[in-house]
Amino acid sequence: MKATKFLSVLFCGLTALCVTSCINDDDDNEKIVPLTKEQVAQCYQMIKGNYTGHLVFSVKNAATSQNGVDSVATTWSVINDSTITVDKFPAKLIADVVTNTNMKEALAKADPQTLTCYYGFISNSPIQFLVNPMTLNYTLNYGGAEHKVSVAFYVNSPYSFGAYDYQKTIMEMQLLVGAVYEDGKTTTYLRETTPLVFSSKKKN
């Protein structure tokens, strides 16, 4: 697939939604009103189910040091009105943006994990929601020792969000990888804050 074009289209759509939200936040006459239980239930009924599509991410060309994009197939499920689970999230995507060579190589070999995300609706027309991914934890062996490596995402952030197009039954989300921890300590091994863009169509 033409990943560059695909990522550009996704970011345009997601950015437009984010800009709209920010404009509303800055308008003194506009107040964000929490959705009612009935509205939340209606939104959940619209988006619940299983999705299949692509996870798009940034990659660095080793020869030119230029950033590009790539994508992998992905599936996820909206299992209740507060939880989304991404199936078999590949640790290799994190390894690609880790600068420590030993950790990078170990992460690249780690088994995929289920990524659990908690979400909350902020709008029902269009359907929009904030996404709070849980930290991914890995037990890895490198440098002659066993290490606990944790990958943390941005939470409670306007840049970690999603939207659903009920007419096309397409959901899109953006998550941000924000930090990598080693044995409970903060590191500087994450090359940069890394956006991950998900775009999938509902299967049922």
Automatic annotation (TrEMBL):
**Signal peptide segment:** 1-21
Keywords from the named record: Signal
> What is the official name of this protein in its record?
DUF4840 domain-containing protein
